[in-house]
């Protein structure tokens, strides 16, 4: 059974940092592309950052470039999203998604709230 578990969310102030984790079981994340999505209240889910399978290239949404970093720890079967200089507009539920060859898995999400 494949499971993705996000953690690391919380309530922070503008300018603070958080590191989100996406820990996998039942699947080797290193073999999958992984994307972090977020969904704010009343808005559609949007991709924030992704890393290709096999530790390939990374890509970021313009709004988070220079502030967010996606990385892997293959030994821990975990993908991270380091978020610096957080802004109130980063407030959302953050989800990780692992995908390969048309198969995808989602985590349950972790809430990030940034106060001004």
Description:
The protein is mainly β and 116 residues long. It is 0% helix and 55% strand. It is built from no helices and 11 strands. Strands 2, 4, 5, 6, 9, 10 and 11 form a 7-stranded mixed sheet that branches. A hairpin with a 2-residue loop joins strand 9 (92-100) and strand 10. It is globular and about 40 Å long. The mean pLDDT is 96.
Gist?
By secondary structure, this protein is mainly beta. 0% of the residues lie in helices and 55% in strands. A hairpin with a 6-residue loop joins β4 (33-39) and β5 (46-51).
Cα separation of the termini: 40 Å
What Rg do the Cα atoms give? 13 Å
| Largest β-sheet summary | 7 strands, mixed
Unreliable segments of 5+ consecutive residues: none
What distinguishing features does this structure have?
single chain; 116 residues; mainly beta; seven-stranded mixed β-sheet; four-stranded antiparallel β-sheet; 11 strands
Topology diagram in text:
Layout (H helix, E strand, L loop, with lengths): L2 E5 L2 E4 L4 E8 L7 E7 L6 E6 L6 E3 L7 E6 L4 E6 L8 E9 L2 E4 L3 E6 L1
Parallel strand pairs: 2-11
Antiparallel strand pairs: 1-3, 3-8, 4-5, 4-9, 5-6, 7-8, 9-10, 9-11
């Amino acid at each position: 059974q494949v499971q993705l578990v996000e953690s690391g969310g919380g309530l922070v102030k503008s300018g603070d940092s958080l590191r989100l984790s996406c820990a996998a079981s039942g699947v080797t994340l290193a073999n999958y592309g992984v994307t972090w999505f977020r969904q704010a209240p009343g808005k559609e889910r949007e991709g924030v950052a992704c890393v290709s399978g096999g530790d390939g290239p990374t890509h970021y949404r313009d709004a988070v470039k220079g502030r967010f970093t996606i990385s892997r720890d293959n030994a821990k079967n975990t993908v991270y999203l380091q978020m610096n200089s957080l802004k109130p507009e980063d407030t959302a539920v953050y989800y990780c998604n692992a995908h390969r060859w048309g198969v995808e898995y989602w985590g349950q999400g972790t809430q990030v709230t940034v106060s001004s």
